[in-house]
Amino acid sequence: MQLQSKFDELNCCVIIPTYNNQNTLSGVIEGVLEVTSNIIVVNDGATDNTSEILRSFSNNIEVVNHEVNRGKGRALRNGFKKALDLGYTHAITIDSDGQHFPEDLKYFLDEIKVNPNSLVIGARNMTQENVPGKSSFGNKFSNFWFKIDTGINLEDTQSGYRLYPIKEIADITFYTNKFEFEVEVIVKSAWSGINVKNIPIKVHYEPGKERITHFRPFRDFTRISILNTYLFILAALYFIPVRFVKSLTKQRIKDFINENFFNADEPVHTKALSMGFGVFMGIFPIWGYQLLVGIPLAHFFRLNKALFILAANISIPPMIPFIIYISYRIGYYFVSNPTMDLFFSHGITLEQIKNNLMQYLAGAVVFSVVAGLLTFVTSYFYFSLSRYIRLKNSEDIN
Fold first, then answer.
1. Which of 33, 149, 311, 391 is the most exposed place for a label (fewest CB within 10 A)?
2. Contact 10/109 with Cβ under 8 angstroms?
3. Can you point out the beta strands (E) in the chain?
4. How far apart are CA 22 and CA 97, in angstroms?
């Protein structure tokens, strides 16, 4: 056993979840036994000869048995529990279908020494020959959602060849039991502050031979999609905002302000247009949709989005009553049936509501255009003057 002393020193074991892989299970166990005897096999309710195969290794391995098939996620979770009971702090999981190479176990052990609290995923070369197209697509799909949920970019999020810091993840609550657990565990581990990373590994796909898999495309993909939706909602409501706030170091805030507000290389007219367009959209009468409409337009016209958002906040709640009132007063001069009865002092009728609304809308459009133009002109002179003063000071220094 080439690495037994290292496995013992690092309190690490190998967990092999298996379900109806009688053709490859013996070879996988024998391969791992050449490296270490710290092995836990989880028999997930197999109905083939798995039980007989495991009995032949009974003196060398620990076995956890499920009476019925409960899913890979539950098999892994029960494997982790058994490993903790045996005193291990780390577990390397390897699939029983024969696609992984036991000699790569040493690379995971190296990671424990360097990054003892990391969850490490073996990254397969998905561009090599014989890789099933559906596996490559599924991996890209999973990588995309992992990046959205955590902000971490990984090459492979679906590989079952992994190093888990089982002591670190023991307090995390998990809800899934099937294949989707391998998504849930890495996302929630990242949210908990555990470093999630890839290391390159080899992978074997038998040429011309269909690999035995228990992944049910429709049912399991639906489960994973539901989980991704759930995780995205959590990320959007909490983890992404928290991640953003944590990223706001003093230097980053300073760099952001310098880049977006004091960028000497950005044309003056671009900055002025951004401010003017922001004020225009902030007043324009599409309440609730100003930013939703304005940000894509600012991006399309290559405006400064930070300045645009700053200016658009003219419509913050304390300013809304003033904007509505000014718009209503301006609208008096642009409708056929003007009124100054904004508060319906003579009673409310459908006709009065219609007239007041049309007067407000007309005035708001005019107000947004005029305010936007005035902001553009004022901003243009301000940014021009600022640039002139900055250049003048630079010349004086030189």
1. 391
2. yes
3. 12-18, 39-44, 62-66, 90-93, 119-123, 162-164, 196-200
4. 9
Tokens of 226: 């539901």
User: Is 41 within 8 Å of 63 (Cβ atoms)?
Assistant: yes
Residue by residue, DSSP assigns 46-100 as --SSHHHHHHHTTTT-EEEEESS---HHHHHHHHHHHHHHTT-SEEEE--TTS-S
- Taking CA atoms, 175 is separated from 10, 93, 183, in Å, by 29, 20, 11
Distance CA 344, CA 276 (A): 34
Contact 30, 56 (CB under 8 A): no
| Alpha carbon distances (Å) from 260 to 207, 212, 252, 253, 376 | 54, 54, 12, 11, 17
Task: Kindly state the DSSP code that residue 314 receives in the 8-state scheme.
Answer: G
Largest Cα span, the chain: 95
Tell me, what's the pLDDT at 210? 47
Show the tokens assigned to 252: 């980053």
pLDDT in tens, 32-42: 999 999 999 99
- Asked whether residue 279 carries a pLDDT value surpassing 90, the answer given is yes
**pTM (predicted TM-score):** 0.64
> Contact at 8 Å (CB) between 362 and 334?
yes
Q: Alpha-carbon dihedral of residues 106, 108, 113, 116, nearest 10 degrees?
A: -160
CA distances from 173 to 83, 87, 189, 205, 335 (A): 18, 21, 10, 34, 62
Q: How far apart are alpha carbons 100 and 96 in whole angstroms? A: 8
Contacts with 55 (C-beta within 8 Å, 6 or more apart), sequence order: none
Residue 18 scores a pLDDT above 60: yes
How confident is the model at residue 261, as a pLDDT? Answer: 66
Q: What is the mean pLDDT of residues 55-61?
A: 92
| Helices 133-150, 181-191: inter-axial angle, 10-degree rounding | 30
Least confident of 2-11, 151-160, 184-193, 262-271: 262-271
d(CA 257, CA 230): 34
Q: What does the alpha-carbon distance between residue 367 and residue 322 come to, in Å, rounded to a whole number?
A: 12
217-42-139 Cα angle (round to 5): 30
Which tokens sit at 190? 């990242």
